Amino acid sequence: MISSKKAVVFLLLVHFLLAFSTALKKSQTYDETVNLASGYHYLTTRSVRLNPEHPPLIDAAAALPLLFLKIDSPRKDWQSDTQRWVNAADFLYRNRVNHRVLLTLGRIPMILLSVLLGLGLYLLGKRLFGPGAGLAALFLYVFCPNILAHAPLVSHDIGLSAMVVLTALFAWDYFQTGRLKPFVFTGVFLGFSLMSKFTALVLGPIFLFWFLFREVEFRGSRVPSFLPGSGGGEHSPGLSQFTRVSLEMGLLAYIAGMVILCFYQFHLGDLPWGLAYGFSHQARGHKAFLLGQYSRMGWWYYFPVAFALKTPVPSLLLILGAVIQVRKGSWLQAGFWLVPALVIFYFGAFTTINIGLRYVLPAFPFLLIGAGGALAWCLRGRKVFKIIGVVFMVWYLIGNLRIYPHYLAYFNELAGGPEKGIYLLGDSNIDWGQDLIGLKEYLDRRGVGEVYLAYSGSCDPADWGIRYQYLPSFLFTFALLSNPPNYRVQGPPELVAISVNNLQGTYDKRKLYHWFWGRPPMARIGYSIYVYDITGSAEAHAELEKIYKTVDLEGLEKHADWEVTNRRGNYYASNFKFK
C-alpha cells in the first residue's frame, strides 16, 4: 500500500510536470510582460510604480530567477499606461537574454507556488475531513484544468490562491489549539495575501465569519486562545466574545500591516495610489463578452455562469454532494471550505471587470476541498458509491488529457467543450494571446511562409518567428510601435489567422471579423486562434479589403480603449494589392 506521504509527493510532481510542460508550449499571455518587468523593477529599485494596479509580492517572486542573469532593467521613463506596456515588452523581447529563457524562468516560481498551494490544500483538507479527503482533494487539484491554466503563467491569481489557502491553514490550526505560533503565521500570510493582489481584501469578511463560527462551535466551553482570560463556560470570568474577537482581529491586522510596510519599504504613499488605480478600473468597467452579449459594466451572474461552463462536471457534482452533506459536519468545518468560496463569489457579483474566471480562482481550492471530502466519502462507502467515485476520477482524468495543454480554453461537456467556447466566454477564459507557438508550429507543418494575422495580445508575433501581414486588432496595439513587417502573403495557400477576441468583436463596435464568425475554420490553434483558408475566394478578399479601408488606426481611440501611436493599418491599406 502506498503511503499518504508518497502519494502526495507523486501527485505534486505530476502537477509540476503538467504545468511546466504547458509553460513550454504556450507563448506569452497578455499581462505577463508587465508583471515580469515590474517584478524585476521592484527587486532592483524597490519601486512598485511600474505596475501600480497590483502589490509587488507575486511579480517579485516571478522575477527572482532573473537576478542571476546579466540583463538590462526596464526603462523607467514611462509617462502613460501605453508606454508602461511598451517598456515592459522591450524588457522581455529586446534584452540581452532570449525572451523564451526569461519567460520560462519567470514562470517556474509560479509553478512552484502552485505546488505549494497543492500542499496547503492537502493539509487543510486532511485537517477538516481526514487523510483520505485530503488526498482526494489533492487529486482533484492536481488535474484541475482551471488551476493548470494559470499555474504556468506569470500572473497573480495562483499566487494569491496559495497565500489565501495557507492563511486558512494556519487560521484553522490556531482555532483548534489557541497557540501563539499559528496565530502569528496567520497574520503573516494574511499580509502575504494582501501583497499578492488587492482583491485579498475579501479575507476581512471571511475572517469575521470564521470567528463567528468558532464562537458558535465552542459555545459553553473554553475557546482556544492565547489571550489571557479567554474564559470557560458562559458564567466563567474572562474576556467577552466581542472583546476577544476584536483583539484577535486587531492583532492579525497589525501583523499583516507590518508585512505590508516591509513590502512598500514604509513608502505608504504608493499604496493608496495602487488602490485608486484599481478602483478607477472598476469605475470605468471593462469590455466583456458573455453568451453572445457585450457589456462594459459586467453582469452580476457572470462568475457563476463561467464557473458552471468551465468547471469539470465531476467536480460540479462532487461540490453539490458536499454542499448537501454540509449539515452533517460542524459549523467551523463548513466555514473553512464553503464560506470563503461563497464570499468570493458574492463580491464577484459586484465587480465590473468580467474578463476571466481567474478573478474567483481563490475559491477553487476551498471548493475542491469540499469535493475531496465527498469523493473520499464515495470511495469508502458501499460498492455502488465506490463505483461512482472511480467513474468520477476516470472521467476527470480523461477530461484533463483531452484538453492538455490548452487548459486556458477548457470548457466542460455541459458547455459543449472548447470548440463551443468562442460563443460563450471571451478574454482570459479562452484567448489571452497564448497560442503563437502553436500557430508557428502549424504553419511550419503546412509549409506556409506568411499569414494574414489579427492577433489579440501584447507582443509582436514576429518575435515568435511568425511572418505575417497585419490585420487590425484591438488588443494588439502596443506592438504597433515596432517597424511594420513587409511580408506579403504569397499563396497558395492564403491563410487568415484570427484570435477569438477579434472574432467575438468585444473590443470593436463594428465587429470587423463578423464575416468569418459563422464560417467553420480549417484549424483551431489551442482553441484561441482560428485559421481560415481564403485561397481563391473573391468574397473573402473583398472582405479583407473592406476591413483595411474602414479602419483608420489613427482614429482608433473612437472604437477601442487603447492609445494608438502608428498608422500600420493605413500602411497596409495603401500598399496591399487585393486579388
Give a description of the structure.
The chain is mainly alpha-helical and 579 residues long. The chain has 3 domains: 4-30 and 98-401, no CATH class; 31-97, no CATH class; 435-575, no CATH class. The chain is 54% helix and 4% strand. The protein contains 22 helices and 7 strands. It has helices spanning 4-25, 32-45, 57-63, 81-93, 99-129, 131-142, 145-150, 156-177, 180-194, 203-217, 241-263, 270-284, 302-310, 313-325, 331-348, 363-379, 383-403, 436-446, 500-504, 514-517, 538-550, 568-575; strands at residues 288-290, 293-295, 451-454, 468-470, 495-499, 523-525, 529-533. The protein has a 5-stranded mixed β-sheet. Strands 1-2 form a two-stranded antiparallel ribbon. The protein is globular, with a radius of gyration of 25 Å.
Overview in brief:
The chain has 22 helices and seven strands.
Based on the model shown, name its key terms.
7 strands, 5-stranded mixed beta sheet, single chain, 22 helices, two-stranded antiparallel ribbon, 579 residues, 4% strand, disordered C terminus, mainly alpha
